[in-house]
Amino acid sequence: MRLPATDLGIMAEHLTTHEGMINKFKLYYTKARNMELRNLLSTHIQVLRNHVRVMLMLIDPAQKEPVQLHRFDDIQLSLGYHQFSKQEKDIILEAKASAKLMASNNFMSALMMKDPNVKQVHIEMAIQEVQLQALYDQIIEHMNWIFTPKVTEQMQLTTLQEYYHLLNE
After folding, report:
1. What are phi and psi of 83, to 5 degrees?
2. Are 47 and 24 in contact (CB under 8 A)?
3. Rg (CA), the chain
4. Most exposed among 14, 21, 61, 118, judged by the fewest C-beta atoms under 10 Å?
5. Where do the structural domains in the chain lie, given as residue ranges?
């Protein structure tokens, strides 16, 4: 299939990014001692490699059939009593940020892409990165490494009342 130049250019940039991300996560894997974290990093590496494989298939002009993104298996983290080193905490926080950035980048790229298959695959890649981000979030929340301030019920009600008229617009 012949791709629009926009799609090819975006994927060429993505492949460079994926090379760096894969190597970064491989380094993180060597530094991590916690098995839950190692399993999650390994999964993230496999997901990124799958994204590379699919993009290369999309770029291949001999590829005539639509390309499907492989779904990764659901991961159930066992977050009973786990200890993480300071370095592992930093890895988890950064890996979450990387997944968030990759999800955003894939989705924004999909909005600019022209080929329907390329566009759909990148939307699915974004969703997979969101799923990985959620797994890192599970660890972060379990370990109480994040504080999320909450608004008052009154503030929510005031906001609801302020914008409720939009239902009639």
Report:
1. -115, 140
2. no
3. 20
4. 61
5. 5-168
Report the distance separating Cα 165 and Cα 169, nearest Å: 7
The secondary structure of residue 166, as a DSSP letter, is: G
pLDDT of residue 73: 79
From first CA to last CA, the distance across the chain in angstroms is 45
Sign of the alpha-carbon torsion through 133, 43, 88, 81: positive
Owner of token pair 């980048």: 105
Structure token digits, residue 78: 């066992």
Task: Indicate the angle between helix axes 35-59 and 116-142, nearest 10 degrees.
Answer: 170
| 18 pLDDT higher than 90 | yes
Q: Which amino acid is at 49?
A: R
pTM above 0.85, yes or no: yes
Structure tokens at 96: 């979450």
> What percent of the chain lies above the pLDDT cut of 70?
100
The two three-digit tokens of residue 154, written as one number: 């009154």
- Cα 159 to Cα 69: distance, rounded to the nearest angstrom: 40
Contacts of 130 (CB under 8 A, 6+ apart): 99, 103
Determine the pLDDT at residue 79. Answer: 77
CATH of domain 5-168: 1.20.1260.10
> What is residue 78's predicted lDDT score, i.e. its pLDDT?
83
